[in-house]
From TrEMBL:
One Pfam family it belongs to: Zn_ribbon_DZR_6
Occurrences of domain Zinc-ribbon (ranges): 4-94
Descriptive protein name: Zinc-ribbon domain-containing protein
Organism: Mucilaginibacter arboris
Length: 354
């Protein structure tokens, strides 16, 4: 995620802000430009972008619930922005804490959508294309009903809204013995399954995928059951980014895809801040010297991206430890995983829309 600036007063603003804390101008995100703009009221709930008077916008309909700050053109056929138009089912807002949970969920989902738009990947709602589209169900467990499972099925991503509760999510992380568990991580993983269907299945990339990740034709249910019963292979950390990735080729892809998005988004933030890492130690650590100058989304060669990521993640982990927190990125990227990440980068780079 890049950092944004109010073009009225030059104040640094956050992606989720709805008004500038310095000048007070309302803010809205324009998905075509991928920019957060100050707005000027134009009457009848419409706005123009500051210093741009031709196009009128409205806020997404979900702005009224405090969960979205994206803009919709005045003449749009839908009252929802590109991110919210992906929703199929939202939480029951009559339930306690539902709106607060939904806000946290949408913050994470909007960041996901930003990344997908930044990469130029095909992104369409099932409302517009039932066969190839993407949609989200945000569901709660109901008494007497089966537990809601977070997952993906043919373009439908289901999320149990309990994941928006920090305490419950941490309980699940410990129970699953996971080093990392976040809403954004869930979204990045599940959308990886969606893009396997869109970009890999029946494509020119399928054979190379199978060479790197394994045979997707292996029975998925049996593979997961074996993983839960027997655990991962003893040497899983030499070949996979996580133990769960070792369960099936699809999960290896989705886990690695999620980490690809972790890396790209974090490095974009680093480049926006002009981050530099130059450890004040012996020259033997020269491989940790890096100046993050270029937006990773503009780099075709993944070897340059991963060479930047390793010192940045090492610095982030060290800073987190100084605050008494867990490592921000508690994973080891082996050469085998780098090869998989490079493949994902190639597929994404070559699949960009013009």
């Amino acid at each position: 995620m890049e950092i944004f600036k109010c073009t009225h007063c030059s104040q640094i603003i956050y992606f989720e802000n709805t008004s500038c804390v310095q000048c007070g101008y309302p803010l809205g995100f324009e998905a075509k430009d991928l920019k957060l703009y100050p707005l000027v009221f134009a009457g009848d709930k419409t706005y123009t972008i500051y210093n741009q008077t031709k196009q009128k916008y409205r806020y997404c309909l979900n702005y009224q619930y405090g969960v979205c700050n994206w803009l919709v053109k005045e003449d749009s056929e839908t009252p929802y922005c590109q991110a919210c138009n992906l929703n199929s089912t939202i939480p029951n807002l009559n339930q306690p804490e539902a709106k607060a949970h939904w806000r946290v969920i949408e913050n994470a989902k909007h960041r996901l959508v930003y990344s997908l738009l930044k990469m130029g990947l095909p992104l369409i709602s099932k409302k517009n294309d039932e066969e190839k589209g993407l949609t989200f169900d945000f569901l709660a467990d109901l008494k007497g009903k089966p537990r809601v499972l977070t997952g993906h099925d043919n373009g439908l991503i289901t999320l149990n809204i309990i994941e928006a509760d920090d305490v419950e999510r941490e309980k699940s992380r410990k129970a699953m013995m996971e080093p990392y568990r976040t809403l954004l991580g869930h979204f990045r993983h599940e959308v990886g399954h969606y893009y396997w269907d869109r970009l890999i299945d029946n494509s020119v990339y399928l054979q190379e995928f199978r060479q790197l990740f394994g045979d997707d034709r292996e029975d998925y249910g049996e593979a997961l059951q074996k993983h839960y019963n027997q655990g991962p292979p003893a040497d899983w950390n030499e070949h996979f980014i996580s133990s769960y990735a070792s369960s099936h080729a699809w999960e290896d892809w989705a886990e690695t895809w999620a980490h690809y998005l972790h890396i790209m988004d974090t490095l974009q933030t680093s480049s926006s801040f002009g981050l530099s890492v130059h450890p004040q130690i012996a020259k033997s650590a020269d491989h940790l010297d890096v100046d993050v100058k270029q937006d990773p989304y503009e780099i075709a060669d993944f070897t340059k991206i991963i060479a930047t990521w390793l010192p940045v993640s090492f610095a982030m982990n060290s800073i987190n430890r100084s605050m008494g927190n867990r490592d921000l990125y508690p994973f080891i990227i082996t050469p085998v995983v780098v090869e998989k990440l490079s493949f994902i980068h190639k597929v994404c780079y070559q699949s960009r829309r013009p």
